[in-house]
Amino acid sequence: MPLSEEERRRLAQLELQLIKDDPKLAKELESATAHQQSRIDTSACKLILLAGVLLILVGTTGQLPFIGATGFLLLGAGAYCLFRKKGARKRNR
User: Taking the model in full, what pTM does it have?
Assistant: First the structure.
């Protein structure tokens, strides 16, 4: 259920008030949200990587080159996603 314009305005005011009253808490909350999102993104990358490995196995054992090639592409995409995220985290530290 979307927020009304009045609710959005009040929420924005509360956010600004929190930042003004306790900037340390606001920064901690923002950091925790970013960390949780990063963990979700990393899990998704790992699942893509695993799906790629499984498709490669299915493709090779079943002699289905299209399935194997699709698995290889997923494996590459998952690895790229995972290592790109790790590189971004190292640069932000």
Answer: 0.52
